[in-house]
Amino acid sequence: MEMLSVKNIGISFGGLQAVDSFSITINKGELYGLIGPNGAGKTTVFNLLTGVYKPDMGQIFLEGENITGLSTIEINKAGIARTFQNIRLFKNMSVLDNVKCGLHNNYKYSSASGILRLPSYFKTERIMNEQAYEILKVFDLDKEAKLLSSNLPYGKQRKLEIARALATNPKLLLLDEPAAGMNPSETEELMDTIRLVREKYDVTILLIEHDMKLVAGICEKIFVLNFGVKLANGLPQDVLNDPEVIKAYLGE
Amino acid sequence: MKAQLVKMKSQVQKLNRSTRSNVITIGVIVIAYTICMSMIKAGNMSNLLQNLLVAMCYYAIMAVSLNLTVGILGQLSLGHAGFMCIGAFTGAFFSKIMVGTIDNVLIRFTLAILIGAAMAGLFGVLIGIVVLRLRGDYLAIVTLAFGEIIKNVLNVLYIGYDSRGIHFSVNDTASLNLEEGGMVIIKGAQGISGTPRNSTFTIGVILLILTYLVIVNLINSRSGRAIMAIRDNHIAAESIGIDITKYKILAFSISAALAGVAGVLYSHNIATVQSTKFGYNTSILILVFVVLGGMGNLRGSIIAAILLTVLPEYLRFMRDYRMLIYAIVLIVMMIFNWAPACVNWRKKHSLKGFIDNKIRKKAKEEA
Ligand SMILES: Nc1ncnc2c1ncn2[C@@H]1O[C@H](COP(=O)(O)OP(=O)(O)OP(=O)(O)O)[C@@H](O)[C@H]1O
Ligand SMILES: [Mg+2]
User: Fold this and answer.
1) Looking at residue B2, what is its pLDDT?
2) CB contact, 8 Å: B117 with chain A?
3) Beta bridge partners of A11
4) What one-character DSSP code corresponds to residue B187?
5) Which residues surround ligand 2, an ion (CB under 5 A)?
6) Which of B19, B218, B222 to mutate to test the interface with A (most CBs of A within 10 A)?
7) pLDDT value of residue B267
8) Does A234 contact chain B (CB < 8 Å)?
């Protein structure tokens, strides 16, 4: 079953065609890798999928539903959540509250019940706390729940971003360089966590990574982007042995 | 009795840290209030200070409510006094036409406060929809403009009341065409006079505590988290489906409504209310309280508002140098208030730290 189906989307900034006729089909439950050299347009693809930029052309379907042109908020509600290459946590809020922000649309009570502390406030907050702790445990962050998120070490901040995105209960999770800045053992651990998350939360994942070996170890399929256009797409062993791909990465 | 105390103590210990800090803040306000009241009773309080008590309350309410917009939502507003103006005039207007109809002062004043808050909140929504698309400097300038517009419109507005209803004019009293026995309530630049003087220190303190509770409860709720998420990173907030516009307007209008409450308190404390009082000078003054007390720090706003309301009155003996000294004190406070050494000292010696420590020690002993 198709989770995401993208047909020929593209965008240009001034004279620069950052992404050109990008098409991809991701099936439910798949773990897909998106790789490519610096400036290839990977993050721009994420921004197009999440409505940060509106595509100049093409269409995006989530589970068959056309989501092209929807706002970021609507797209998240439709089921796409993401993390950011340059970490964007809520810095002045606790680790727990960051995740509870992610739960915002899943558990609701009115502002008035919050201000007046009506029973629905206590009931819903309790459920939210339980849910948030459960997610934090998956990422081994539950002991830091009360810390200010900006006081977490870098690697844990990246994990917290994934936790927050996951809290929105997405069908499709987009991870932009989740292992950037991590040491090899941290990266290894993160990859295990990502596998676990996919099983436990039944979520389809598209992830951007620079490290091709790393991507090959975890992804079932890989898409290679170069200067905004497709270079290769398919199974890891085929893609990574493709002479075009090797050329793009290693130069002539 | 003793059993009760022990129970109370264990209940305080069970509270989580933020709740405990709020209980302490409200406790300190109540204690300060009790001390003031007993000083008044014993005749130990100077007239100067007595006359400032209600002012401290409405300035403190203004400061905490502005902190919701500036510190919690993270949007710079320079027109907060405009909402106070709306509250002041609406509340006073209501009280004046209802003086004969509703005899019970408490009911009438409560209604005046609610109506003043509702009207200011309504303007908060309307203005918020227009201005909250802007950010930073642009937002600051436009809110300043709206504050001035409110002030100037009320400065030329004449409103009268007779058996046929309410009449408006922007020219003069005569053009209201009131029938015999009609009453002019808002007289342009002369404003409203003769509003019943219902504001008392007690009511002021109650309103301050209520304002504080509204904001604190908001902050620690789902909506409050959304508001702070927008402040910290609006792109990330959108990415997790938080409706930015909705929560910006919510925070802005609650902030405006509470400024309206302060306005009602103000207009029922003074013989004549004139709109010129609510210019950008007042807005900036309130912003100074917020900045000095710390962005997002409600307790700091209250303390700063009280200190800086009292200070200029005590500097009156310096005559012409008064504002100069006031400015210097401000600068010195700004420099020292947030110096790391000062912050550490405050942390070490704060009441909250003291109680937190006690509880931690006790927990350790028990373990
Ligand atoms: N908002 C924008 N305005 C102008 N140019 C942009 C914008 N966003 C991206 N670009 C350009 O589009 C191209 C692709 O950028 P993008 O960030 O998508 O690359 P990337 O593949 O994520 O690279 P990296 O591996 O460095 O993260 C770059 O040349 C970049 O400068
Ligand atoms: Mg990128």
Assistant:
1) 66
2) no
3) A19
4) E
5) A 42-43, 85
6) B222
7) 96
8) no
Q: Which residues in chain B (196-215) have CB-CB distances under 8 A to chain A?
A: 214
Contacts of A92 in chain B (CB under 8 A): 228, 231-232, 296
Q: In what order do the strands lie in the sheet with B183-187?
A: B165-169, B158-162, B183-187
B34: its two tokens: 């009790």
Q: Which of B260, B204, B269, B270 is nearest to B58 (CA)?
A: B204
**How many helical (H) and strand (E) elements, i.e. helices and strands, does chain B have?**
15, 5
| Tally of domains in chain B | 1
Binary contact (B239, A76; C-beta < 8 A):
yes
Identify the DSSP state of A23.
E
Which of B6-10, B125-129, B199-203, B363-367 shows the lowest mean pLDDT across its residues?
Answer: B6-10
The C-alpha atoms of residue A106 and residue A79 are separated, in whole angstroms, by: 12
* Smallest-distance ligand from the CA of A175: 2
Model pLDDT, residue A22: 93
Altogether, the residues listed in chain B come to a count of 367
DSSP string, B279-333: SHHHHHHHHHHHHHH-TT-HHHHHHHHHHHHHHHHHTGGGGGGHHHHHHHHHHHH
**Which stretches of chain A are assigned E, i.e. beta strand?**
2-13, 16-27, 31-35, 57-62, 65-66, 80-82, 172-176, 204-208, 221-226, 229-234
Q: Which helix (H) or strand (E) holds B86?
A: helix B80-98
CATH number at residue B210: 1.10.3470
Considering the domain boundaries, does residue B55 fall inside one?
yes
Rg of chain B on CA atoms, in Å: 22
Task: Answer whether B140's CB lies under 8 Å from B76's CB.
Answer: yes
A179 HSE (CA, 13 A, CB side): 23
Higher pLDDT, B141 or B334: B141
3-class SS of residue B190: helix
Task: At A176, give phi and psi (nearest 5°).
Answer: -95, 105
Establish how many alpha carbons lie within 13 A of residue B169's alpha carbon, considering only the half-sphere containing its beta carbon: 18
Chain-chain contact of B214 with A84 (C-beta, under 8 angstroms): no
**B306 vs B310: CA distance, rounded Å:** 6
In a domain, B168, yes or no: yes
pLDDT in tens, B272-283: 999 999 998 999
Residues 6+ apart with CB under 8 A from B302: B25, B29, B60, B63, B64, B208, B212, B293
A116: which chain B residues are within 8 Å (Cβ-Cβ)?
Answer: 217
Block mean pLDDT (10 aa), chain A, length 252? 94 92 94 92 96 95 95 97 96 97 96 95 96 96 95 94 97 94 87 91 93 81 91 87 81 60
Domain annotation for chain A: domains and CATH numbers: 1-79+170-252 (3.40.50.300), 89-167 (no CATH)
Cα atoms in the Cβ-side hemisphere of radius 13 Å centred on B23: 15
With residue B21 as reference, give the H or E element that holds it. helix B17-41
The pTM of the full predicted model, rounded to 2 decimals, is: 0.91
CB-CB neighbors (< 8 A) of B228 in chain A: 90, 92-93, 97
Instruction: In whole angstroms, give the CA distance from residue A6 to residue B288.
Output: 52
Structure-block tokens of residue A243:
């002479």
